[in-house]
Structures are given as C-alpha cells and as structure tokens.
Automatic annotation (TrEMBL), chain B:
<keyword id="KW-0547">Nucleotide-binding</keyword>
<dbReference type="InterPro" id="IPR003593">
    <property type="entry name" value="AAA+_ATPase"/>
</dbReference>
<dbReference type="InterPro" id="IPR003439">
    <property type="entry name" value="ABC_transporter-like_ATP-bd"/>
</dbReference>
<feature type="domain" description="ABC transporter">
    <location>
        <begin position="4"/>
        <end position="236"/>
    </location>
</feature>
<dbReference type="InterPro" id="IPR017871">
    <property type="entry name" value="ABC_transporter-like_CS"/>
</dbReference>
<dbReference type="Pfam" id="PF00005">
    <property type="entry name" value="ABC_tran"/>
</dbReference>
<protein>
    <submittedName>
        <fullName>Nitrate/sulfonate/bicarbonate ABC transporter ATP-binding protein</fullName>
    </submittedName>
</protein>
<dbReference type="GO" id="GO:0005524">
    <property type="term" value="F:ATP binding"/>
</dbReference>
<keyword id="KW-0813">Transport</keyword>
<dbReference type="InterPro" id="IPR027417">
    <property type="entry name" value="P-loop_NTPase"/>
</dbReference>
<dbReference type="GO" id="GO:0016887">
    <property type="term" value="F:ATP hydrolysis activity"/>
</dbReference>
<keyword id="KW-1278">Translocase</keyword>
<dbReference type="InterPro" id="IPR050166">
    <property type="entry name" value="ABC_transporter_ATP-bind"/>
</dbReference>
<keyword id="KW-0067">ATP-binding</keyword>
Length: 224, 281
C-alpha cells in the first residue's frame, strides 16, 4: 500500500517506456495546457487592453473581472460538464477560465501604468489612437503581461489537474485510476511528472524570458 | 523654418468641485520669427510650459489661436518637434530604433535608418546606436531626444526645460551643442527655462513671464555677439536686470504658496513669533 521510492521510479519507467500509459497521459495533458494557456493569454490580453484603454469598459467589466477572478475556476466544472456534455471542451473551458483573469488584470495594470510622457512624446511624433496602443502601450506593458502569463500558466495547470481528476483523460485521470487499483507507487510517479513539468516550464521558459525582457526594458537592479 | 504666431491665447483650468476656475494667462500674444531662438523665462507656475504645450498641441487653449506657418494648431503633429525635461525614450527600443520611431511613418526602413544615423552623428552618439536607453547617462538620453526631434525635420523645435534635470557640466556641454545645432539647421526654437543664464546664453529674445495675473512681463532682445561669454559686463548687466524683475515674481509665487510665513528680507526663525504682526498692516 505505502509507496516506496524505488517502486515509484520503477512505475515511472514502466509507465513512460513500456506500457506507455504515462506517456499518453502526459501528451494529452500537455496538449490541453498548451492550447488552454495560449487561449487564456490571448483572451486575457485582449480583455486587459480593452479595460486598460477604455474607461467605460473598465468601470463596467472591471469589477466583474475581479469578482470572477476570486472564483476558483474548478468551480465552473459542474456547469461546464453539463454544457459540453462531458466532452473535452469542459476541461479546456476550466483551464482557460483559470488563466484568463490573472492575465487580464495584469495587462490592464500594465497599460494603465504606461508613463504618460511616453504617450505625449509619441503624440508629438504623429502617432494617434490605435497606433499609440500598438506601438507604445503594448510594448510598454510587456513586463507586466509576462507576470500575467506566468500566473495564467500556474492557475491553468492547477485547474487542469483538478479538472482531470473529475473529468476524462490526462495525468489527473490516470492518477485517479492508479488510486482505484491501490497502486500508490504509480500515484507518486505521476506526482513526480507533474512537479517536473512545473520545474521545466519555470526554469527553461519563464525565467529565461523574464530575464531577457527585464534587462532589455532596463528594470533589473544591476547596471545603471 | 516657420513663423510661430500666438494670438490672444487664454488658458483656464476649470475646477468643477469648487465651481471656480483658475486662469493661468489671458490675451497672450507672441510672434516668433522664422529661424529665431526665443526663450520663455519665468517662475514656476507662470504657465511657460503650458504655453509650450499649447504650441505643441498637447494642451488645448481655452481661447485664442496658435499658428505655425499657415496652419492653425489643433493637435500634436510631427511638424513640431518637442524635447521634454525627461528624455521620454521608449525603454524597449535601442537608441537607433528610438530615433527611427519618429520617422518610421514617413519613410522606408532603410532610409529611416540612414536618416536616424545621420542625426545621431550630429549629437555625437554614433558609438551608442545599439545601446538601450537605460545604459545611457542623463545627458546622452537628452541628446537622443534632441536627435529624435530633429530627425522629423520639424518646422519648429519646442524645448521644455530640456536640461533642467542635468548636472552643470553636462548642461554646459549641451548648451554649446544646441547652439551649434541651431546655427547649422537654422530651426525656429522655442525654449522654456527657469535658468536666466541659460536663456541669455542661447536666445535671440527672452520672454519674461509672470504670475497673478499671468502673462508676458517684458521681452528682452539679446544683442550680444555669439558665442556669448557669461563673464562679460553686458551679460552680467542683463542678468541683473532680469533677476530684478524675476525676483519680484518669484517672491509673489512664494507668498502665494506660503502666506505671511514667507519673508525674503530676513530669516524669521531667530525672532519670537509674537513680534510678527503680519505684512498687511
């Protein structure tokens, strides 16, 4: 019953290379998080720009977004399962909802915090309306959009695991299956995979991008 | 090179909460001749930056008209280059890209690059084309801002205390360069400053502005040969003349802000407060 380290590693090997159940589950989960995360970033980015630019949108939708953000996205799963009739759509829905609001709020803050002097300067060079958004506001808010993306990934990944425990397919479902067979070694093996994915994304993706962006935008403490 | 005509301009800031408004200046008229270097000098709060912003199109005047050449100013545009007190460079663009940012809309990429490089050379920054703004010193950033404004080939160059935040040595260097650039390009320049010496050193005419009521107090024509020497008697005489009027204006501003507490004649700290009977007796 109780998992052992060697047993877990053994299960990890078997699952990934012999039976391939872990490999398939991993591929499925990764596909879901990548698509869900991308959509969350796009939708959140768009909403964030809208809230940051338009005062009317901010005063109407703004508090709604904050309200929605405080609802853990997994809470949407029961409704989503009904609406999407238990399909994979429900899981995507929850993952996207998990990431969108964090992205929205961070992009909104980034747009609001653009130094007014940059906008004034751009105006004197003949930039107007949408050009100002594309050429000044968006690039200026990239550092906080990156923070938003990071949070969107973290929330999305958690939401995905929770949704898969209840829903179908992926690492979460495999985890539940393993529990049903009292295969605790396999449970721990899956937990190892989940944490590894987190580590890899954090160190090889976000940290690297963030370092680059912060040094280019001159936001690091070193230098000057 | 274009003439700037400011005719009877008024600027009033409405205050909705208290239902009263604040008029910065009224019926202000000024003509800057083509190729002329004019300084706006005055105490803080006299509206010199506001006036410049109105010419730039960044602020709207309450009434009156500003014309650059034959066009009436309604909004900001690339026919007027503006240099602010802060360099206002886009932090995510290199020095070269920052200058190109101003002209990208007008020309093709290659052409813009060549053009930008030319102007960066004018301000001696050829070595820093690919540096980011945060890697430059304050003076260098301001040079980039000047190059950026010039690269648009504007009819007028508007400078809003461009050297206010720099140290004395850097400022002296940039004075020489601005003068050189002005002689070279023969642009019409409107220059806001609170530094008397700076205004005498650089300008053809000095427009002295005051507060309460806001507006032009006096216009000095600086008839000294260039390059000007701050130690020459004529220079010092003019500096004293301007200081006499400006000093009174500054005192007015201070009184406005601090009330009877302010007294430029003596420091009142050593006297007992019971001796202070106010100034309005």
């Amino acid at each position: 019953m109780f998992p052992s380290p060697s047993g877990s590693v053994q299960q990890l090997y078997i699952g990934l290379f012999e039976t391939g159940i872990l490999a398939t589950a991993l591929a499925e989960s990764l596909q879901r998080i990548v698509i869900g995360f991308t959509l969350a970033v796009l939708i959140g980015g768009f909403l964030g720009v809208l809230l940051g630019v338009s005062k009317i949108a901010d005063e109407t939708l703004g508090s709604l977004v904050i309200a929605l953000q405080s609802v853990p996205s997994i809470v949407w799963l029961p409704i989503a399962l009904v609406v999407f009739q238990g399909g994979a759509g429900a899981i995507y829905f929850v993952v996207i909802l998990g990431g969108t609001w964090a992205m929205t709020l961070n992009v909104r803050m980034g747009i609001k915090n653009v130094q007014p002097i940059l906008l004034r300067a751009a105006k004197t060079m003949g930039y107007k309306n949408t050009e100002l958004i594309w050429k000044v506001m968006l690039p200026a808010s990239i550092p906080s959009a990156l923070t938003g993306a990071r949070l969107a990934w973290a929330f999305g990944w958690r939401a995905l695991m929770a949704a898969e425990l209840i829903g179908r397919g992926g690492l979460g479902r495999t985890l539940m299956d393993a529990r049903d067979f009292f295969n605790m070694d396999l449970v721990v093996a899956i937990m190892i995979i989940i944490s590894c994915i987190g580590l890899i994304v954090e160190y090889f993706l976000f940290s690297k991008i963030e370092k680059k962006v912060l040094s280019r935008w001159g936001l690091t403490n070193s230098g000057s | 090179m274009e003439r700037v005509m400011i005719t009877e301009v008024e600027k009033t800031f409405p205050n909705k909460e208290k239902n009263q408004s604040f008029t910065v200046f009224k019926d202000l008229s000024l003509t800057v001749e083509p190729g002329e270097f004019v300084s706006l000098l005055g105490p803080s709060g006299c509206g010199k930056s506001t006036l410049l912003n109105i010419v730039a199109g960044l602020d709207q005047s309450t009434s009156g008209k500003v014309k650059v050449g034959d066009t009436t100013i309604k909004e900001p545009g690339s026919d007027r280059g503006v240099v602010f007190q802060e360099a206002a460079l886009m932090p995510w663009l290199t020095v070269l890209e920052n200058v190109m940012f101003a002209i990208n809309k007008k020309m093709k990429k290659e052409e813009a690059k060549e053009h930008a490089t030319k102007y960066l050379k004018l301000v001696h920054l050829s070595k820093f084309l690919h540096s980011y703004p945060h890697e430059l010193s304050g003076g260098m950033k301001q040079r980039v801002a000047i190059a950026r404004a010039l690269s648009m080939d504007p009819k007028v160059l508007l400078m809003d205390e461009p050297f206010g935040a720099l140290d004395e040595q850097t400022r002296m260097m940039l004075h020489k360069e601005v003068q050189y650039i002005w002689e070279e390009t023969k642009k019409t320049i409107l220059f806001v400053t609170h530094n008397i010496r700076e205004s005498i050193l650089l300008s053809d005419r000095i427009v002295l502005m005051g507060t309460r009521p806001g507006g032009i107090r006096k216009i000095y024509t600086v008839d000294l040969p260039r390059p000007r020497v701050p130690a020459s008697p004529e220079f010092i005489q003019l500096e004293q003349d301007i200081m006499a009027i400006l000093g009174g204006e500054i005192e007015k501003v201070m009184k406005e802000e601090m009330g009877d507490d302010f007294n430029s004649q003596k420091a009142s700290l050593l006297y007992g407060t019971d001796r202070n009977m106010g100034n309005h007796i």
